[in-house]
């Protein structure tokens, strides 16, 4: 009996019959007949014939995917991307330690930790550091844990960032995104979130500057106006005094 191979598209998450595909070396490239998105499934490392050397692996811009089989020898092929793994790990972190900091990074700025007694980036002393120093406010803790449980929901990411912008907490949310990248470096949602935080911070600064410049340009005008009115008032007083003396 002929069996039909099916795939679970990581983009539209629909179960479809395997149709258009091609091989690029040892990589299977599958085109979803539903949404048209191409997914790549790399050959398992054990079956690879080409030796690998440190630092020689090319960087791919396409989402990283792998083949996953189900129990019982099912004919359904699941293409898992870095996004799927990031969502699963974020959900696990929500129930375990959502604000735990890895030992290899600075607990404050999440930069790579140096061997020195203080962070060369933010200057914090590792010996005097306490978790309460960088603990987010309660509203952000609650919103972040809820976001971790639904990490693939881009609308929730946007809501958290907008709320942080309104409450002047962009730096705190940016640190949490960096914390996710320290745990899952290939997390696409954390990469996008960090980039969006930087954009929002730049917009906030650019909106604040015109007001500051306006104050700087208005102050001399006001000063000149006051001096002009004062000089005119003195002239009027002197004129009236002189007229009274001559009359």
Give the helix proportion (percent range). 40-55%
Radius of gyration: 31 Å
Derived structural class: alpha+beta
Poorly predicted runs of 5 or more residues: 44-71, 212-217
Oligomer: single chain
How far is the first residue's CA from the last residue's CA? 127 Å
Keywords: Membrane, Transmembrane, Transmembrane helix
Transmembrane segments: 225-246
Explain how this protein is built.
- The protein folds into 2 domains: 6-43 and 62-84, no CATH class; 86-201, no CATH class.
- It contains 5 helices and 7 strands, in the order E-E-E-E-E-E-E-H-H-H-H-H.
- It has helices spanning 82-95, 138-149, 154-166, 170-183, 188-246, and strands spanning 6-8, 15-17, 21-24, 27-31, 38-42, 65-68, 76-81.
- It is elongated.
- It starts with 5 loop residues before the first strand and ends with a helix.
- It is α+β, with helices and mostly antiparallel strands and 247 residues long.
- 45% of the residues lie in helices and 12% in strands.
- The strands form 2 sheets. The protein has a 4-stranded mixed sheet.
- The longest helix is centred in the C-terminal third of the chain and has 59 residues, at 188-246.
- Strand 1 (6-8) and strand 2 (15-17) form a beta hairpin.
- Keywords: Membrane, Transmembrane, Transmembrane helix.
- The chain crosses the membrane at residues 225-246.
């Amino acid at each position: 009996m002929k069996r039909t191979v099916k795939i679970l598209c990581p983009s539209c998450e629909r179960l479809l019959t395997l149709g258009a595909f091609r091989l690029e070396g040892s990589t299977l490239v599958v085109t979803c007949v539903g949404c048209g998105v191409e997914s790549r499934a790399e050959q398992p490392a054990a079956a690879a014939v080409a030796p690998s050397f440190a630092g020689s692996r090319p960087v791919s811009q396409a989402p990283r995917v792998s083949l996953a089989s189900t129990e019982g020898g099912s004919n359904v092929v699941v293409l898992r991307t870095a996004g799927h793994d990031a969502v699963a790990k974020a959900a696990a972190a929500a129930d375990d330690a959502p604000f735990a900091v890895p030992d290899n990074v600075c607990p404050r700025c999440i930069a790579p930790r140096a061997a020195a007694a203080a962070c060369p980036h933010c200057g914090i002393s590792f010996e005097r550091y306490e978790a309460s120093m960088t603990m987010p406010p309660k509203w952000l803790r609650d919103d972040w844990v809820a976001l971790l449980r639904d990490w693939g929901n881009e609308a929730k990411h946007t809501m958290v960032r907008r709320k942080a912008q309104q409450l002047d907490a962009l730096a705190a949310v940016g640190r949490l995104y960096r914390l996710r990248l320290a745990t899952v470096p290939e997390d696409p949602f954390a990469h996008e979130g960090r980039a969006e935080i930087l954009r929002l911070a730049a917009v906030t600064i650019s909106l604040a500057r015109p007001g500051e410049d306006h104050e700087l340009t208005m102050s001399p005008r006001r000063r000149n106006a006051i001096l002009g009115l004062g000089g005119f008032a003195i002239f009027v007083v002197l004129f009236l005094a002189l007229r009274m003396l001559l009359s």
